[in-house]
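The instructor's notes for this session suggest beginning with a concrete chain rather than abstract definitions. Hand out the sequence below and ask the class to guess, before any prediction is shown, which regions might be ordered.
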Amino acid sequence: MELPSPMQLSLQQAKLADERNEVPVGAIIVYENSVIAACGNRTTEMYDPTAHAELLAIRLACKMLGNERLDGCDMYVTLEPCAMCAQAISFARIRRLYFGAYDPKGGGVESGARIFQQPTCHHRPEVIGGLMETECAQILKDFFTARRR
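After discussion, reveal the predicted structure:
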């Protein structure tokens, strides 16, 4: 039996967020080939606009490693991070960022603010976008379509 990839695990977290009526975004952090954090959005549940999957995963991973830096860690997220999350990824010193769907409206990595391209950005992770893009985009499309009915 083949184990799920980190992006598949991120998508599972997005589906769990969807079941909680949260915007379906999931994030996974991997360190030394082990998943140390798996989170989905919880902004509605926690009444917290900063409870994005990425920030929750960073907080959990930092606790797991006992460090505010996540050197050597890779993040997999289903949607291009917003500017807030991109800045947190930089502050946490994430080594690589993998994301699924692009977010032309709210993204902060390849779109919008392009945080990692700013001269004030102290750490720039390697970025690989478009992983499982179709699946990651579809869950978001389905979520928002259902709410417009």
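Then share the key points. DSSP finds five helices and five strands in the chain. The CA atoms of residues 27 and 54 lie 6 Å apart.
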